[in-house]
Amino acid sequence: MNIAQYSMERKTTSWMLFLILLIGGLIALTQLGRLEDPKFTIKQAMVITPYSGASAQQVEEEVTYRLEDAIQELSYVDNVRSISKPGLSQITVEMKSIYRTEQLDQIWDELRRKINDVKNQLPPGTGEPIVRDDFGDVYGVMMAITGPDYSYKDIERYADFLRRELVLVDGVGKVKLAGEQQEQVVVEVSRTRLANLGISPKRIAGLLQTQNAVADAGRVTINEEALRIATSGEFANVEDMSKLVISNPGAEERIYLRDVATIYREAKEIPSHVVRYNGQAALWVAVSFSDNVNVVEVGQRIQKRLDELSYAQPIGMSVDRIYDQPHEVENSVDDFLLNLVEAVAIVIIALLLTMGFRSGLLIGTVLLLTVLGTFIFMYLANINLQRVSLGALIISLGMLVDNAIVIADGIMVAMRKGKSKVDAAVSVVRQNQWPLLGATVIGIIAFAPIGLSSDATGEFAGSLFWVLLISLLLSWFTALTLIPFLADRLYSAKDIGDEKNDAFSHPVYKGYKAVLSTCLRHRIISMVVMLALLVAAVLGFGQAKQSFFPPSTTPLFYVDLWYPQGTDIRHTETDSKRLEDYLLEKPVVTSVATTVGRGAPRFTLTYLVEKSYESYAQLLVRVEDKEAMEPLMRDIRERIRSEHPDVEDKLIRVEIGPATPAKIEARFSGPDIEVLRQLSKKAQALLDRDEGAVNIRSDWRNQTKLLRPEYDEAAGRRAGITKEDVNNLLRANFVGRRIGVYRDGTDLLPIIQRAPESERVDLNNWQELQIYSPVFDRFVPLAQVVRSIGVKWEDPLILRRDRKRTLTVMADHDLLRDETAAQVFERVKPQIEAIELPLGYELNWGGEHEVSGDAEKALFNALPFGFLVMFIITVLLFNSIRQAAVLWTTVPLSIIGVTVGLLLLDKPFGFMALLGFLSLSGMLIKNGVVLLEQVNAELDAGKEATQALSDAAVSRVRPVGMAAATTILGMIPLLFDDFFASMATVIMFGLGFATVLTLFVVPVMYAIVQRVPRP
């Protein structure tokens, strides 16, 4: 039994299928997870190793070098990047793009084992290497807690309370705090009083360490009862510390610590990270989500819990949202669902106007059921609603109606020729079911390079392929089952005509037939004209703008501020606040969140978290709407140039696709630091001369000053004063030296020893510093063991890539000009490559050029196989290589329409546009398959070749034209979305021209290849 006959006769089964798709689709839509962007894995981990007191070069050579060697042994590694700076090694390990989340846990375990194996080879004084594999965690809700009348400690207590409560909310993964100020216990010891009492500073440090240490005193058994022994003496509070007896052994006089020191608690004087919100000191609470959850629902649960906890919120303390992904997702998904509804409505209206009410209602109903059915399979396949998956549905709309139009139109034509509804449906389905399946599979395979791409960009856009796969296969199934079933309900016996009737007597068909006959008579001239248009299009394509991914439309942007390397973080904080205050005066600015010392927690997948630099600050500026961004960004740039002349600024829009530190990156690698800096200067000079390049800088930053005390070893030995003693004195005088730990409940606070403010001296009077001599048993001037303190220059940052010293010159295109990064890159690339490199040095390109190249490489790796499968299917469908070749000649000709669209609408050709072109090839082949299958059907009916070709082409005017029209009209909502605009342009204009190719070029090429006589 034919499937059409089955669906028409088994009405209960068909109604059940109808209701399953309708009701099940609506339920699945409410249950699907919702995200702003597709989830993709950030395949990076960081290895952080402290090496206190070492220079950047010592860190590089003694710590970073050994760790990099061990890490590079892992076969999974794509690249290893490191930053060596005084006292700290930061290594970023990036794994190959082929690995996914489920494989990374094992890889990070192997990374830890490698680090553990090599840590014993690190020099004395090196801290424990820390492996951070949660580098890619995304904290979709970021809140700022402020309280003008509260201390940091008060705010921290409330923030910690919220952290402990919110982590229990269903769907929440992690909760972390940012901007915490390290509290410490300061012991200001007077050297003068110590000298008078003859007490060594080392004695005080030793007593504080041992007195407060937790140690096991054992146990004793008394009458079968085991009793644990715990000696008293630990500090219960700061007052207890002041009562510590520090008298020398055997001394009659009892001297307490309070006699020689002032003891108090305070926040660390030099913070490592400072955050603010709208100009006020703040703490940030960042919340991440569990996997595969509806973030909108989790966001509602978070808000509900916050409302329940409002009783504990201190009066005058505020909790504000810096970034609210659930809100952004809700708006984004709602906008896309609206676009989807608009696109469906546009397609259905077009069908009603062109196909007639009943045919339009029939096809529109099946289209709606197919979309709803796709939601069911998306739910089963765990595909969330997000930008790409919803975009895929809109892209597929036009393709979804192709199968339905062919079957519905075929049934109507057959009925007008006198066949009954059942006979018409059976014959049309029998003739078209396998060609339509082959054409549908070809359309799916055109998107396969996206789904098969191993690159991060492929992972990002992969749901495009899977949604299209589901929806197109479902459209084929519903066309064969529901179209005949609903046609039986909607079409009536009045639609049955006489077999002598000409179903194509309309003037449109007659006009098309006349033009086609002309083209078939002058077939060579027709193809020469097409070839000339193709050449012109290829030349014109070179004028189209190039861009990898467009920026997001979220009304949020970042202002990066880089002060000269070596700037104290307190100055960075103070000066950045001036710009913050200026922005808060602007009416269009709704909030400004500032992070100083390092980047914010990663709140979107595409946000690049900057590592720790005292000279770095970033402002997250949210405005009323996206139209207000560009004027404000222009104003900010002018303000920074005039009021903050020593700052390197960078304005950044929120990215949609994978982000890079800079759009243009020239990497110079080689052994000598000075040579690398010289190459950097030459490259920066060339970039400076290009008016389109901005934010020109080097990631090694500027050299900084170093104070170098000259230790007199001979004098030091005589006085019993070591180099370590000198270092401890200088640290205690200018910063404070850690000498122990104070326990306060769950907090472990460092005990810092330093001189009272009255005894601290500035650098000009360093000779007056007093240092304790155990030989003389008294304090002596520092000048006795230190000859002088000189000033030298040092490289504060040494960066490496794949174990080579690599200096990267970075630049960006101007966001405020109508020029893409690719255009600037193409201008400066030959100039920088012309720089003469010494032997042993090399230049490599990074930035957008590298990322887009990697994405396209991964895409094109799968492309030949996809096209081969598509070609094989066309050969198998027609059992003819020549007929398959006819279809494939139309693919390159589609460039004509693509070029016209890109130039006319001024859209850049990027990754998404490339995907659009690949999908266009599938649509072209799909339409061509339907046409050639009809030609073969006409020949099988006994018609002469010329007549068969003409009749087949005429019979396919409406299906092909309507399929193209519905696809083009369905793309209209995507033209207004920055992410999909280029793809929509390529498909709309390419398919519009492709319709001409299918209706004219395919018959002409068929006539040439098959040697069909001229009409």
List the helices and strands and how they pair.
Layout: H1 3-9, H2 11-31, E1 44-50, H3 56-72, E2 77-85, E3 88-95, H4 101-118, E4 130-132, E5 141-146, H5 152-166, E6 172-178, E7 183-189, H6 191-197, H7 201-211, E8 219-222, E9 225-228, H8 238-242, H9 257-260, E10 261-267, E11 274-277, E12 280-289, H10 295-308, E13 318-324, H11 325-355, H12 357-380, H13 387-416, H14 421-445, H15 448-452, H16 456-490, H17 507-521, H18 523-541, E14 556-562, H19 569-584, E15 589-596, E16 616-623, H20 629-643, E17 648-653, E18 664-669, H21 673-689, E19 693-698, E20 704-711, H22 713-719, H23 723-734, E21 737-744, E22 747-754, E23 770-773, E24 778-781, E25 786-794, E26 798-801, E27 804-813, H24 821-833, E28 842-846, H25 847-878, H26 881-888, H27 890-893, H28 895-905, H29 911-940, H30 945-955, H31 957-970, H32 981-1009
Helix pairs in contact: 1-14, 1-16, 2-12, 3-4, 10-11, 11-12, 11-13, 11-31, 12-13, 12-16, 13-14, 13-16, 13-31, 14-16, 14-25, 14-29, 18-28, 18-32, 25-26, 25-29, 26-32, 28-32, 29-30, 29-32, 30-32, 31-32
Overview of the molecule:
By secondary structure, the protein is α+β, with helices and mostly antiparallel strands. The protein is built from 32 helices and 28 strands. The strands form six sheets. Strands 1, 2, 3, 4, 18, 19, 26, 27 and 28 form a nine-stranded antiparallel β-sheet that branches.
Please describe the structure with a list of short key phrases separated by commas or semicolons.
1015 residues, alpha+beta, 9-stranded antiparallel beta sheet, 32 helices, 51% helix, elongated
